[in-house]
Amino acid sequence: MLKLTKVAMALAAVAFSAGSVSVAQAQETAQPSFNYVSGTVHQVDLDGEKLNGFGIDFGFDVTEQVFAEVQYFDVGDSYGEYFGATYVEADLDVQQLYANLGYKIFEQDGTAIYLSAGFAYAKATYDISGFGSESFDDNGYNVQMGIRHRFNQQFEVDANMRHYDMGDDVNDQEFALTGRYYINNEFSLLLGYTAAGDDVSYTRVGATWHF
Hints:
Elements: H1 2-28, E1 36-46, E2 49-61, E3 66-83, E4 86-108, E5 111-128, E6 132-150, E7 155-165, E8 171-182, E9 187-196, E10 200-210
Antiparallel strand pairs: 1-2, 1-10, 2-3, 3-4, 4-5, 5-6, 6-7, 7-8, 8-9, 9-10
């Protein structure tokens, strides 16, 4: 009887230890971040023209499954050329904004699959010395589907595809890939690449605060 009691106690101890390990492992599983503010440096390749500037992204959970995200950048460049004896300088500035509401259709074991949709806006401004300035802007909608995976405490990757429609001449698809390295739970560094249509792509690097 004593031996059986000792065996039972030993089995109970093993079961308790295994349960503790499972709980600890579950607690260590990091989930992708949807609550953040990022500041980025952008370089946009617009049909061979390099435009440099900045971007701001932020996102937050509305509920456990619903989230909101906003992505904005402002890039530009200046260049000049002689026409006869006259030097003409031109400035080009491009702004883009997406403001979406999303839904996490799957979130488990460090992976989140999501859908989002919302507002899309783009504006281009030309300023040519001696000729004045002119701007063009379009707005419409965008629909996005993506997957965000947290490999461990340090590394996270987001891959997504977006369709945007801002009028007859401004509608296409974007494919984006972003890698993130977490310095700690609150701060990370990011590197991203986006291809939009046949003649537009951009890279971005930045830092993020997670809350």
